[in-house]
């Protein structure tokens, strides 16, 4: 699909920069330029298409849809909704708060909150390009399972008692967009594409840059020794390392790709990626505005256990 780009970047590195792609520097440069252009192309296309589709679903309609679905089906609906929403945890939190203010049960809203940053259409497209259909679909399925199961568990713990009073102010959810014409929807999708790319490009470049350094310079034997797929604690360590960081799924995929190329287990790399996107420290700061510490701790614990189990499963299957 991107062979033309592969050839172009190879010509750039070897023909223009005069650096062999087999060298450490050449390999890192090739990784950086190739992944940057490929991801930006896929990202822009997917954001535009999904933003156009999203323009048909106003927040009030979403609330009505989730209100009419009961039981585990509601958690599944919320989790699937999270797939086609913003690209990082901190942009998902305001929507989550809006659902809380709208009176949607908290267990259901947690299914949305957990799935949204882990799985999105752009991450799926890039995982598909990097690892193939089997890994991409399994990752999406795992993200949905984590969101649904965590929401069901949290929903049984009377979580509403651990919300701050201001969580029910209703301010964030009352902004309902009017119906738009087809021309307005296309303009909206274009604006969303420009806005989101502008907002996340720096995290994307940082992630690709780190991935390029790992790809070209990280010693394979050390990574394989301490984080190989046969190391039982590697998934736990990856999750603990990912929590303090902040990035969206797109920024972490190049890092995961580079780690896997160096011998790190697929489940370990994806567990790190999930932890960064779903359990970041900035997200916890935002959630503290509406949640008491005990509920945040429950959220972190359930999501962490789910991510670790998925990481171990990936290491066994792939």
From TrEMBL:
InterPro entries: DUF318, UPF0718_permease. Keywords: Cell membrane, Membrane, Transmembrane, Transmembrane helix. It is a multi-pass membrane protein. The chain crosses the membrane at residues 31-53, 136-155, 200-218, 230-247, 259-282, 294-317. It is found in: Cell membrane. It comes from the Bacteria. One of its GO terms (cellular component) is plasma membrane. Belongs to the UPF0718 family. This is Permease. It comes from Tichowtungia aerotolerans.
